[in-house]
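Inverse folding, one chain.
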């Protein structure tokens, strides 16, 4: 059945206009309280710093269903014809992007068009919606931050994609990646993401881990080379996650992923897309994962959400914790800010947030939380008090024998000799003082 075509004049979010900045005293739930896109901070506007993106999958596909209950969200773009629904959903999405004021969006191939019954239908459907996206991008000015292939939902990928023990599945995954990169270039995407949802194992009894990791490296190099040949000049991203759905995934956390990137010779082209909730599942903080990536020079982009420490799964909540966003934005600012990356809201409304306006309110919460993080992080960095305390803690390495040690100029014998006569000093970390200072910045 062919799709019904629409003019794009239909309004899906009726009664909701463009979301404006009204300031912290506003009682309007459909207004920004802290995100002022035109406000200048450290030489750039908030909009330029934060580079917000909307996740197509959670905002327009996640219907509130969970393992214990069916869908609770009703979408006005639903239709019995899957391609008609895809057309409607695309128009609804761009209406939302423009009303919320997001400059970017992100998607999986499976989010935007039905796969169909064979490869030809997959590509035909995908390209049909891609051409609609191109028209809507030109009309609205909204851009593609990155796209990706869903290589984890279909049963063929139950044992992984690039790491699958069946070569035929690896080849089928390559077709999806090739198509997604073609679409990316067509839409002017600024990055491309790999999330290895099932690139891992459930049991070592039936897994050749060394061979699978090598296959994944080969696969990523092939994808990198193809993208460069067709004109993709942006960054490739790997998104770390320790498990779920696999018991153990090969991109466990930032440090593991960086080791893999360097082992496979991908560091010139690949960066990390760090997700807060995935950091929680790995037993780390959001700031830790960002700092590890930044220290390696491989911080690329961010999936902006938060998890629940009491839940052992990926809850993908909209960020509301200002302490976390202040820490995050301090790392991002100190690393030079985003280039091809940004803050993609990989977050979904709660199952019981069923009003259409709740999609706006949830994103307003996320925008405002990161705007506060940006504002306060810049203030802390500009004041320099916290940085001065940090520098003082390591000052013994700034001159003399300490500086020689850092430069690799001492032998172990020389270092041990210094230790014979060195005074046994204790340098306070001033942790509680710094935490009180942060509270002053946040609430003073």
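Residues assigned per position:
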């Amino acid at each position: 059945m062919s799709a019904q075509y629409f003019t794009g004049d239909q309004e899906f979010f009726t009664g909701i206009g463009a979301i404006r900045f009204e300031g912290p005293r506003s009682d309007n739930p459909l207004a920004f309280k802290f995100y002022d896109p035109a406000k200048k901070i450290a030489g750039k506007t908030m909009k330029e710093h934060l580079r917000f993106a909307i996740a197509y999958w959670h905002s327009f596909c996640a219907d509130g269903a969970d393992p214990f209950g069916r869908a609770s969200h009703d979408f006005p773009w639903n239709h019995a014809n899957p391609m008609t629904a895809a057309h409607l959903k695309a128009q609804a999405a761009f209406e939302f992007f423009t009303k919320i004021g997001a400059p970017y969006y992100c998607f999986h191939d499976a989010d935007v068009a039905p796969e169909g019954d064979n490869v030809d239908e997959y590509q035909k459907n995908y390209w049909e919606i891609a051409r609609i996206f191109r028209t809507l991008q030109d009309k609205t000015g909204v851009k593609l931050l990155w796209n990706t292939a869903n290589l984890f939902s279909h049963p063929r990928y139950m044992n992984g994609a690039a790491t699958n023990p069946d070569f035929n599945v690896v080849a089928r995954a390559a077709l999806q990646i090739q198509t997604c990169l073609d679409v990316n270039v067509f839409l002017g995407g600024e990055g491309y993401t790999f999330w290895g949802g099932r690139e891992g194992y459930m049991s070592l009894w039936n897994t050749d881990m060394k061979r699978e990791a090598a296959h994944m490296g080969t696969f990523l190099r092939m994808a990198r080379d193809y993208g460069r040949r067709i004109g993709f000049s942006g960054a490739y991203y790997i998104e770390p996650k320790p498990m779920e759905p696999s018991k153990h995934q090969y991109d466990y956390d930032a440090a593991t992923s960086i080791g893999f990137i360097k082992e496979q010779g991908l560091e010139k082209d690949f960066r990390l897309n760090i997700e807060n909730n995935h950091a929680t599942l790995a037993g780390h903080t959001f700031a830790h994962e960002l700092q590890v990536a930044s220290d390696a020079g491989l911080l690329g982009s961010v999936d902006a959400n938060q998890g629940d420490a009491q839940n052992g799964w990926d809850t993908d909540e909209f960020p509301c914790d200002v302490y976390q966003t202040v820490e995050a934005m301090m790392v991002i600012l100190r690393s030079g800010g985003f280039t091809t990356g940004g803050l993609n809201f990989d977050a979904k409304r709660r199952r019981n947030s069923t009003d259409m306006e709740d999609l706006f309110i949830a994103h307003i919460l996320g925008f405002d939380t990161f705007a506060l993080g940006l504002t306060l992080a810049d203030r802390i960095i500009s004041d320099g008090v916290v940085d001065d305390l940090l520098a003082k803690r390591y000052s013994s390495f700034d001159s003399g024998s300490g500086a020689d040690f850092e430069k690799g100029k001492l032998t172990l014998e020389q270092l041990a000799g210094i230790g014979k006569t060195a005074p046994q000093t204790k340098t306070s970390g001033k942790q509680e003082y710094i935490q009180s200072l942060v509270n002053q910045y946040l609430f003073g």
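The two ends are 62 Å apart (CA to CA). Confidence is low (pLDDT under 50) at residues 1-7.
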